[in-house]
Amino acid sequence: MKKLFVMITFILALLTLPVSVLADVTDGSTTPETTKATNGTSFIIDNAHIYDGMDKAYKDGYTLTVKNGVATVVLPLTSNSEIKDNIITASPGLGDTAASPFVFKNYQKTVKLNNNVAHGGASVATYLVRFDLSLDSGRINGVYPLTMDIQATGPDGTPVQQTFTSYVTITDGKKPISTEEPVVEKPTSEPKLIVSGYSVNPSPVTAGKEFTATVSLKNTSTTKDIQNATVTVACDSTNISLQNASDTFFIKNLGKGKTTDINLKYKTDLDTPAKAIKITFAMSYDNAQATALTSTGTISVDVKQPLRVEMKLPQIAENVSAGDTLPLSFQVMNMGRSKIYNVRFELNAPGLIPT
Predict the structure, then answer these.
(1) Does residue 177 fall inside a structural domain?
(2) Angle at 10 (CA atoms; ends 73, 63), nearest 5 degrees
(3) What's 197's domain CATH number?
(4) What does the alpha-carbon distance between residue 237 and residue 209 come to, in Å, rounded to a whole number?
(5) For the whole prediction, is pTM greater than 0.85?
(6) Residue 199 shares a structural domain with residue 261
(7) What residues pair up with 297 in beta bridges, in sequence order?
């Protein structure tokens, strides 16, 4: 297969037709490609000699060198006709700036026809084009096109233009995104906001009186913060009214494992039944990724009714005889709103003996 390729290259050189080379740094293969020539003047690759920067001649499969962050391309050219002043201009085309592995800068240069020394000592009249192209540190592995635009002027002043295309294979860069293994994050629990404790003062609460409740809210997560938290409080008794300006409290941020307190002030009326009153907390908050989360909590407040007992004294005659027995009836009245038990009276009446 390689002998056939060399034969084709040799015939093309004899016919002075334009050729270009495909240079692949991994397999060393070369493939002719169509190039553009104008006005019958063509540049031809010297495929028989090895110049400085080349590992082998083009006919033997010259490959571009990639080493130490630099891609080196050597293109020895001859012309099938006279070139004005024997000067050409070479400009490498580095491809799309968003995807190219090269560092973009002005690499254009003029090259004169010189007798260049090839390996083995042969002196060959060529336009020896060489570029050492810096590679970007973030380059991605893959095969990239590299064009070499050659411009010159014919003896009659007509412009001459021809393009040669090579391909550079990058193997020392980063893996392409599509082939990189996806990063799998270890799942972690979302932060939880809970009621971690509370205190009521005074306790128990006497109906008709005011009381305060200090409630502690805790972010139980050891890895994630909480932000933009709103806490709304509600009571299951209509006899208790919140004295704070609002029933909703805002917490801008609560770090992992941190606790914050909110203070509630309530007033009870005399009709508040003697029992445990429930105060609930509806909490809404965000995690670090602004994902909305919710939780709830409850505290219990014991309420007692005040004890109010009155006694109605019996009517006793102004004058009684010694030795008389006097039946006395006492009336006890519960003036409060809860039951009372074990009512006990002590009667102290000098001269009266209880029977």
Answers:
(1) no
(2) 20
(3) 2.60.40.10
(4) 15
(5) no
(6) yes
(7) 281
